[in-house]
Structure formats: structure tokens, C-alpha cells
Amino acid sequence: MENIGNKIQFDIYSTMHSPDPKRLPVILEDWEALAREKLEDGPYYYIAGGAGGEHTIRENLKAFTVVKIIPRMLRDVDKRDLSINLFGEIFPSPVLHAPIGVQSIIHKDGEIGSALACAELGVPYIASSASTVPMEKIAEAMGDAPRWFQLYWSRDPDITASFLKRAEASGYSAIVVTLDTPMMAWREYDLKNVYLPFLAGEGVGNYFTDPAFQAKLEKNPQEDPQAAIMHWTKVFGNTSLSWKDIAFLREHTNLPIILKGILHPDDAKLAMEKGVDGIIVSNHGGRQVDGAIGALDALPEVVNVVEGNIPVLMDSGIRRGSDIIKAIALGAEAVLIGRPLMYGLAVAGQRGVKEVLQHMLADLDITMGLAGQSSVSRLDESILRKSE
User: Fold this and answer.
1) Known catalytic residue: 264?
2) pTM exceeds cut of 0.90
3) Contacts with 265 (C-beta within 8 Å, 6 or more apart), sequence order
4) Catalytic pick from 97, 107, 284, 359?
């Protein structure tokens, strides 16, 4: 992806004298506005909304505004390199598609559309346990393209073990364990709209096709979908988990285990003590704990504790290329993008996801060059200042 920014930018400008009638937005806020027009209240607020009064969503965004980039001059940025090395693999950029469930409520292309858009750009796609499309079908569509699997740790250990086995067999190369959702948060918009898509059979594709899940049903999900949904409500999430349970994951997979949802440095220490392979600093995009610390604010302390022993990634609040630069400079090795890609999906399906990703990567490339930096892997805190 060397100098991708120049190419994408020129492609857009070259349409000046012959505008494309199917032209999609460039401005992120326009994508969101169009998504709002296309989606009904339930699906829209399920994507855009957060926990409680949504203070954490605002805190995530605010955290990026107080960190400033200090551009350097005459640094030879003619060739710029966005590639990273993560868990022994070379990826073309420091961007991954965050795990997002029930994409079928957003657009008919759903998870397959998002996964194919990522495959076109070499962006690793993280498939959610809560996908409507089963993990095997996503893997089949992606072919050899990079993909990870996100695990919602079920109350039923047989289901958890089965998900891990299926992911490994389907060519997923890492397991992302979401820790911050042992139960669903108090989300006022979802409650107001009486909207929980799982109860309508959306986002349960991995469960309904799972042999361990099916073994606990009197009839298969096709024969009695309502009974299957009610069983899902009993096994989704697990509030009894503790740090000693990490050993269970290692017993059932040889893939790298990455813990998502770490915000406190002491939890980062415990993660390393338990031998996990990576950490994602995240507050679930503000969807779980209202009034929580911004993810970018939490990142430096976690990075300091980890001391480079395992990779630290980050999500929650990233909207533009400059945000990616700030996160990487503060110690993240890569970032996960969520809501912006879902707005793209809502507006134009697979094409929309690809466009949003391309714009974000172009913005990253150009902004990095203008800041006097030629390699994303060499970004560090020296290019930043924090204002009060």
C-alpha cells in the first residue's frame, strides 16, 4: 500500500469534469447521515448508540482531540510504508475490521460484504461470534484473505470449545476474546426502540449451526427457531468468568489468544501472567460502561506495563487517519475500525465498506507524510503533545 493516499486522492479528483452519478461520500459525517436516512430507528441506534447517557462514546472522541500531532519538515517522505508485522504475519496497513455482529440488520450484504471488502484490501477481518452468517461461510467467501475470530465466551463451555475448534478448522489465524460483554449493557436507545435483533433470529448463525448448541435442543433450530432463540438467551455471555478460566482457552486452541476490552494496567499484567498473546485496549466503542475512561487515554498505561512483551492493539473512537497515527504513536501496533465501516455498509454494502476503508487508509498515508513520517511502524510519542 505504498503511497496509497496519492492514488486514492487523484482518483477522486479525476472525476471532477465527469462526476460519477453513483459517487459515494468522502466526508465521514456524510456516511453517517446517509446511514441514518437508510436505516430504521432500531438498526441505526443499535450501531450508533452506546451505554446509558453515551458519555463514553463522547469521551472516546474527546481523547483524540487533546492529543496533537507536531509535524516535522524536510524528512523525505517520498515513499511511505504503512505495513506492520503482527503475530508473525505482514499486513499492508495497521488497520483491522473490528468484530461486529448482526450485520444483516444493516444491509443485505451483511458480514459477507464486509469480509469481501476487507479481502480486496488485505485488511484482516475479525468475524464475530454474533454474526448472522456462520464463520465457515465467511471463511469460504474470503478464501486465503486474513481473518481472525472473535469469541463471546458462552456460559456453556461445550459451545465455547466448539467455536474455538470451528474457527481453527476454518482458517482463522487468531482468537479475539471479548471480555467486556459478559452481559449486555443498559442501552437506552435499544430499550426505547424495544430492539434486540437476536430475538428475531439475527446474529445467531454461529449458534444455530453449532453441534454443541444443537445437542442441547429438543428440535433443531430450523424446526423450532423460537426454542433455539430462548436457549441462546440462556447461554450467551458468562458473568462467572475469572482469570483462572483463561487456561480453558489454551486447552482448546493453538491459535494466538488476544484479550479485547482491557483498560486497566493491572488487567494487562494479569493477561501477561496468564500467557495470552495480545491485548486490545477497548471500551467496546462506549457500548458497555457509561462514564468509562476513553480508550486512547487508557492506552499509554497499558503499553507501559506490557513493555513490548506482547502486541497491544486499540479500538474505540477512531474516525480518521490522524486518529490512527495518534494511537500508533502512543504504542498501539494496530487499530480496529468499527462504526465508520458499518455506516459504509448501510449506505452501499460491500462497496461502501471498501470505500470507507480506502478513504481512511488514504487519509492515514497522506497525514503521516505531511507529519514528516515515512513508516507507520516507526511512529512514536515524540511526534505528539497533549493539551489540557
Assistant:
1) no
2) yes
3) 301, 302, 304, 305
4) 284
